[in-house]
Amino acid sequence: MYFGVCVTVLVTASWVGATHCIKFLYLRRNTYASTLPPHLTAFITDGTTDTVAVGAAPDQNSTSAMIVHGFGPTSSFLPSTAKPIITSDRVAPPVTAHVFNAPFFASWFCTNFAILFFPIYILGRVAIKKCDGTGEVLGEILRGFRDRGFTIGRFLNRCLTFCILWLLTTYLYALSLKALLATDVMALFATNVACVYLLAWVILQEQFVGVRIVAVILCDTGIALLAYMDGITGSPTLGGVVLAALAAAGYAVFKVMFRKVMGDPPVGQIAFTFSIIGFLNAAILWPVCIALYFTGAEIMPWETLPWVVLLMASVLLLVFHILTQFSSAVTYNMFVTLGLITAVPVSAALDIVLYGAHFAGMKLAGIILIAVGFFLVMFPDNWPDYITRLLR
């Protein structure tokens, strides 16, 4: 139980940190209005002109006025009650239009860090059992795959499928952060537990639990409320919600198919598989990033690319995935899953402090319904027996 609490805290911290780092990559920063408070000069609204007026009195008919606010790069991040601030006093140089807009590259870069799964496992194994060398551990893992009927070709084929599915899920998640706040995306991603239950019931023939169907309905209702929280016409919210929901569904498919194909392998085999997934991602899928860059589909300003933020997001995602895969060796899986939903209120607090976000109306109702559905999915299979014992 003590290990479980620590795992929940670490999962929450890594998941929130990684999501907000990815979100930060998209934000256009104003480097000229340095005299104003940071939360007012941090971000500039897209759709304005290319010059910043931090000087003369704002002219309604002038194209040199710049709205500075602390919410995000597009108007979709602004709550309905937000009042932007128009700066005045001096005219600053133009702001470059080249901002980071490469969600696929960010997803590919973060996925490359999966290569470190097996080296981290080796270091831990050698530290615990100093008599085991790297060759001995690797030989034990390969024998385990061979005994389960995996050939080299079959194993690499399965790993490539998992690699594409994992990268696609990460890409959808990163893409949805362009149109939604981090808290909204994390709440929508938490619905993957309901998708996992449905797929496990159909594909893995797991036990049917009636209360989990209610949980699925609640999660779907929450998704619908978030989809229409800003109306239907002229709002990018609906597209962002669809992308985040697809990311949750993709992650659920990845987890269920991994259990279907790999079964319940030891930790060493899991670490080796994820390292191969990261290696295939780095070795095979890099031409896609190059093609997107040269065709202009993605914008990567190399001179101003926030490498530190990108590295932080990659490391935090690696920590998150290591915790989700390895924590079952020391505690219950429930604590790992619980970290996904506890990250939502933590992220909401950050959104309120950093971007002045407001959670009310349909948005708040949708997040609450998703949270209730999340906890219902976590009910044990024999939950009626517990209630009967409590009543007796």
From TrEMBL:
This is EamA domain-containing protein. The chain crosses the membrane at residues 104-123, 155-174, 186-204, 211-229, 241-258, 270-293, 305-323, 335-358, 364-383. Keywords: Membrane, Transmembrane, Transmembrane helix. It comes from Anopheles maculatus. The keyword Membrane applies. It comes from the Eukaryota.
